[in-house]
Amino acid sequence: MIIMEPSRQLMIVGNAASLQVTLQQLSGYGWSIHHANNAQEAMKLLNGEACKVGLTTIVPSVSSLPFELDWRSGLSQIQWVAIIDRDALQHDKVRDLIYNACYAYQAHPTDVKKLDILLESALDMASLHEAHPIPTLSCPGDEYHMVGESPVMQQLYRTIYKVAAADAPVLITGESGTGKELTAHAIHVHSSRHHGPFNVVNCGALPSGLIQSELFGHERGAFTGANHRKIGIIESSQGGTLFLDEIGDLPLDMQVNLLRFLENLKVFRVGGLQEIPVDVRVLAATHIDLEKAVDSGEFREDLYHRLNVLQVRMPALRDHPEDIEPLAQFFFRKFSAEKPSRVHGFSRDCTVVMQQYPWPGNIRELVNRVRRSMVMCEHRLITPSDMGLERSHGLSREADTLQQVRDMAESEAIRAALARNKHKVRHAARELGVSRVTLYRLIEKHRIDKSGGADEGKRPIHRYQDSFNQPQHDEGRSQTPADQSYSY
Ligand SMILES: Nc1ncnc2c1ncn2[C@@H]1O[C@H](COP(=O)(O)OP(=O)(O)OP(=O)(O)O)[C@@H](O)[C@H]1O
């Protein structure tokens, strides 16, 4: 007999015909289903039945988004899980809706066991909902200070407060340079572990032969050259938080060991005879689509679910353009304080161009461009050219043919995908849904060169071109699209 848990109340809004079988199965998992025909009924259910989790279908037609507007006026307290056709993800509107309004989604065909786990974790998230209403994350003067007051950033701060209050693993996803490490740090400092250490490991940068001993440590004499006992980074995170950056780069054999650690929270030093318990919270980040990596066998599914208990999705900078200027001003002041400069600020033209630029390398690219512009600028105000954001000479909007517009869109999509994927052609090709051979051909066609810009003079159409030849400084660990080379 199934004992009904009082909190397992699930709300369905609108037409649930296609979910009938799924709902029956979910009842078998102890979910009590409440059906509302519209938002008003849903609001009543929200108050009367204490529903905190909702299940909805989303298909790419406007009429099928019954709560699209209503969720803003009350139903946002519900943690929504969406059931979609994978094809529906092609539609911007569906992607936006899932991103803005849903806790998670599952693509057809429905896997009820996994859906039950998703709903359970949505329920956990819902109970954290009221925890921290303050939508700012300010630590001025701190290297981890987060800038941005747009609604998108406020939502991010709320999410950070919520997940900080739980002691479960968090998966932070988002494009490169969006602030995943900053977010991991913010989760740590707002958690009960803030007195403990915050350790960062870049899984992609660990030397392959040493990963095991770097993470888990080793005993003296465990292997040639092990002259001393070494405490691994997991063990040294005792009482604090371990941030595993670029988790998608962790080799498969290490994924098994990490999974084992996450399951029993004990480490075995290489050459050690006993397991050592470690009290640590693990946060992981990735800029790649881990679900796809699971599908292609590059990432273990069990580890993915273990890490993905709570998820924070980082917005791309182009999704909160209101923050571009405050961010640029913040870094301008920061760098001016570090090294006095005769530059007074940004020209109006520059501010406009910054707004229009798509920032494929996100905030890291902005930081680097501001820093370099302060070196390059020969006047009192920074120009678009100092930022390396000149408009292309060849581009005249009136003269654009359809083919030119197509070429431009294709070229920009490729450049952005390469930037997002740290210029790894294989990953960018997968994201763009083309073969590697096709992507090489297109890189050649658009003359996208090794510097990540385009070959000036030869490039037919690009809205922006990079005028930097050599990077002067670099802020952060990886480089901007302007100074990376591709890894084939
Ligand atoms: N909201 C923000 N306010 C101020 N600075 C920010 C913000 N977000 C990111 N940055 C800055 O942008 C740079 C990149 O941030 P971070 O390293 O956290 O990004 P990331 O998403 O982890 O990048 P990657 O995927 O390449 O590891 C850093 O210099 C960081 O300080």
Automatic annotation (TrEMBL):
Q: Where is the composition biased (Basic and acidic residues)?
A: 450-465
Q: Polar residues bias located where?
A: 478-488
Keywords for the protein's UniProt record, in alphabetical order: ATP-binding, DNA-binding, Nucleotide-binding, Transcription, Transcription regulation
- Entry annotated with the keyword Nucleotide-binding: yes
GO terms for molecular function, please? ATP binding; sequence-specific DNA binding
List the Pfam families hit by this protein, alphabetically: AAA_lid_14, HTH_8, Sigma54_activat, VpsR
Name of the molecule in the record:
DNA-binding NtrC family response regulator
